Amino acid sequence: MRTSLKAIAGLGLLATTASALALMASPHGASSAKAEAPKAAGPARVDDFLLADQNLFGRQLYWMGQDKAVVLVTYALGDKQLHADAPALMALKTAYADKGVEVMAVDSRIGDRRGPVTADAKAAGIDMPILFDYEQLVGEALGVTRADEVIVVDPRGWTIAYRGPVDGAKAAVDALVAGQKVALSAVEAKGEPIAFPERAKSAAFAQISYAKTIAPMVEAKCSTCHQPGGIGPMPLTSYEQVKGFAPMIREVIRTHRMPPFEPDETVGQWKDDGRLSPDQMKTLVHWIDAGAPRGEGEDPLKKIDFKAPEWPLGKPDKIVEIPTVKIPASGVIDYQYPAVKNVMTEGRWLKASAFQINDRQAVHHILSGVAPSDMPAGDTVASSPFTTLLQGYVPGVGYQKMAQDSGLWIPPGSGLAFQAHYTTYGKETVENTKLGLYFYPKGEEPKYPRRTFGIFDFSIEIPAGEREHKEVAYIEFPKDAVVYAFTPHSHKRGVAANVSIRYPDGREETLLAMPRYDFNWQWDYVLAKPINVPAGSKIITHWVYDNSSRNPGNPDPTKTVYWGEQSFEEMLAVYIHYHWAGETAKNPRDDYDKLMQANLMLDVMDDNMDGKLSLAELKGGPQSPGTMLKKYFNVIDTNHDGFIDASELAAAMKLLPKRGGGRPAAAGPAPAATPAVASSEAKAAPAGGGR
User: Fold this and answer.
1) Tell me, what's the pLDDT at 15?
2) Which of 20, 111, 190, 632 has the fewest CB within 10 Å, making it most exposed?
3) DSSP state of 166
4) Hey, which of 181-185, 236-240, 676-680 has the most confident mean pLDDT?
């Protein structure tokens, strides 16, 4: 289980010195109220949580610390009292909309799901975020017993000021808005009871076996990172360590931060899904609620000699050392382009790669690519001369495996070039990165050439201070394809993302939903079952950015932010991993990639997806292609219909001045933006090669 240094600073030291007291005082899981006879009772204080709403946007309670009050309404599908109180609930929300009061519903009832609940709320006239508590851990912690209960929370100390029917909430909210202290007032709610089956078992939580249940769970889900040499900041390799960090473990489970795997549990199925199951989440939290008892039996974790492997995928077939770089304590570092000549004495099919980073704080990302055999001598190049993009390192993920029986051909005599983005963090350091390459056995080749295409929207424009700014981009597939993975990427202001497909007949399906995107954990999300993408389909990505002071990772909420390479700027990117239908490693279709690349500029700026660009869609910073097109809009719009269509855009792009690498000046950072393209060396690859 992995967590952040910031979380440790806030909770870890307290946990290790006062965990026993914290556990004894915990109000969670101790309620003995029965669903059929609930009473107005519950905790005096609310712990942090994160839940996805009906729009698959993650809402975290403690991000609302700047608000005057947070109002939570317990929801249950079809509840008559809730429907009757809908006008009063909406009046409460409207009255305080501009006074720093957040109003949200929380649905903890077993069996309630997003689609029916959204329709039910619309029918009742309830227009507010509805958070789905599928595991019931938040409802248990809040002491929820009935629907239509209003819980008023004071963010100054996360204490509860009022709980009961909506008609009694106004006085508490008024007092909090006025900055007054409010003593808890509790009145029984009038909605139908909500059953919490685990409450009836709370007396047995202390009997959960550490040795037989908890320790094996920690070993499987946590200790792979939280061990000596692992990327976790503290070890979890004994009972004492697990108990010491128990309050933090409970918190990162309720906020869905650990183990770090970001897709929403209700959308899609994924390979290498390392999350705790719902039952595991409840078991671990309930064991902690009971005081994290040691119980009987030896500690299984102490029997294991934990030590992180030097290479997570085993010893590589070839290790490439990237030239060492000295990173200063402060300042902005431009992208670096180190290169290594003559890496390959013979051509091989790449199956996987792994990076060994000695200072993770200093490395934002590294991309690797095949460089031509005639690359100039020296340790660096002017810009990345990739003929084929290989794989990369991003925070949280140090290795990548080719999916779906695919591979990349690396020609003989070629070198490797890198795009390295280093960041300063207040301490001078030296980074000596190594790249491990894993090949298919000699004489064996993959079924398919590995292809990666990036949806990159260079026209994003995120206003200063805006909490939930939305951007959209897409790419249309010109030919039938098979898609098997996605890799979303933004910087510190990106907080949620999803990927969907719109088929030629207009049907739309969500493929990946990330209610809370975390820059520190960037994964390849590999579908358990690849999807067939018919020609004419659009792969669409929606992003939400938080450029307000509420976002703890925001470098500067006072600035409007545009596309840029540095972490204090922003990006909108989704890498699609795929192959073309019918192609093989022996018979690749690189020409189809070129067709798709030709559509990229229009597709990423076409916010309303009507196949043409209006003046309003041409936005972004000074270097945005949208800004340049807007400047010459009347010239480019040759038929003067008020739009730029695909043919007009193609003609305009031919006239734009060129700069380094032969890219249009407005095209922005490349090599990651372009799909793999065949090199002259690759054309000599066995059986046609794969690029």
Assistant:
1) 32
2) 111
3) G
4) 236-240
